[in-house]
Amino acid sequence: MLHTIATSPFQTQALQRCLRYISPDDEILLIQDAVFAGIEKNTWCGAIKMSGVKIYLLEADLAARGLLSKVDKELNVVDLKGFILLTEQHETQMKWA
Questions:
Q1: Distance (Å, whole) CA 11 – CA 8
Q2: Are 30 and 57 in contact (CB under 8 A)?
């Protein structure tokens, strides 16, 4: 399953709830303000890395927020084409709000 999160983990509990319910084969896509979770050396970055699932961040949203150079190197940055491929690869998807 692909879990998509669009809100900042510093403002909502969407990421926290998602991490509680994920399965080992799931993947998480962080878009819009959720990309703040991927900044190196913050609490949420550590939490998503310890989740055991693949984490993707949308490049355009990172660039729009000036965060491209601050992303943890263990996380995966995808462009719009990569975003589309992720959605095509996952028959089931969940958007967390």
A1: 5
A2: yes
The string of pLDDT tens digits covering residues 45-66 is: 999 999 999 999 999 999 999 9
CA angle 95–48–39, rounded 5-degree value: 100
Within 8 A by CB and 6+ apart from 50, the residues are none
Judge whether residue 97 has pLDDT over 90. no
27-30, strands of its sheet edge to edge: 76-78, 54-58, 27-30, 2-5, 93-96
Find, among 34, 30, 32, the residue nearest to 54 by Cα: 30
The pTM of the whole model exceeds 0.85:
yes
> What would the pLDDT profile of 70-85 be if each residue is shown by its tens digit?
999 999 999 999 999 9
> Where are the extended beta strands (E) located within 1-97?
2-5, 27-30, 54-58, 76-78, 93-96
